[in-house]
Amino acid sequence: MTDTTPRDIAFLGLGVMGFPMAGHLARAGHRVTVYNRNADKAAKWVAAHGGQQAATPADAAKGCELVMMCVGNDNDVRTVANGRDGALAGMDKGAILVDHTTASADVAREIHAAAAAKGVGFLDAPISGGQAGAENGKLTVMVGGDAATFARAEGVMALYGRAVTLMGGPGSGQLTKMVNQICIAGLVQALSEGIDFAQRAGLDADRVLDVISKGAAQSWQMENRGKTMVAGKFDYGFAVDWMRKDLGICLDEARSNGAALPVTAIVDQLYSRVQARGGGRWDTSSLIRLLRDA
């Protein structure tokens, strides 16, 4: 159930995901203060949605019951959450910090401990669903943290999440997101191979996708990226640069927990070849370019 009781909320990080996510909070009636490293982006958000912008994460977090953040990587999480002017420096005891960044489980546990030392709740809550999911309020939110903290924040996250689920203790949200990215990596490569095979066999690839998407081969990637892959268009989703960052996190964690990720390691190297061809900002379905150009 969504929470529309007006609250003071900060949102830190207004990228392609954070900008629309913060917008859902404002439209629901919450009093939103935003921070972005590029202040012009924050000013643009305020012009579109109202609210306020702040010069630092600490300033944005002052007096807020909830502080949501969605930044780039582990180092960004550390700086924005626990730096000298980070969110925790401005948060009151009893407030909650929710991190929607895809980062490592280690940094999630680190920030959880730092928040607890200040009497602040913390949830690691990475998201899946892409820019369209953020804009339409239909993200999947995978959450790690304490059950009582989750219960207080769940309704607010539901304003942009169609599925908001507590997966376990601190770090569990990030570990679940790793599983998500591992599965996607293999699916996109298989879809690339299938489409390339269909085209080389002289089949109508769009018609093939229409048929097999109604059977056991169906997947989100096929439904949402298959036909754009056939058309050779790769500006519809999550960038290769970000996927490589995520797969690096998965591979690091696997080295720690002993999991074998042979397919993931191969796909990570394939994405490195896409980057070498200048495709770092193409979406992840661009793996098919390596097969077409072989």
Structure commentary:
With 294 residues, the protein is an alpha/beta fold. It folds into two domains: 8-169, NAD(P)-binding Rossmann-like Domain (Rossmann fold), CATH 3.40.50; 176-292, N-(1-d-carboxylethyl)-l-norvaline Dehydrogenase, domain 2 (Orthogonal Bundle). It has 14 helices and nine strands. It has helices spanning 18-27, 39-49, 57-61, 74-82, 87-90, 105-117, 130-136, 147-157, 172-200, 205-212, 220-231, 240-257, 262-276, 288-292, and strands spanning 8-12, 31-35, 52-53, 66-69, 96-99, 121-124, 127-128, 139-144, 161-168. Helix 8 links the parallel strand 8 (139-144) and strand 9 (161-168). The model has no long low-confidence stretch (mean pLDDT 97).
The main sheet orders its strands as: 3-2-1-4-5-6
CATH-assigned homologous superfamily of the largest domain: NAD(P)-binding Rossmann-like Domain
The largest pleated sheet is described as:
6 strands, parallel
Order of helices and strands: EHEHEHEHHEHEEHEHEHHHHHH
Counting DSSP E segments of at least 2 residues, the number of strands comes to 9
Strand content: 5-15%
The number of distinct structural domains comes to: 2
What is the CATH T-level topology of the largest domain? Rossmann fold
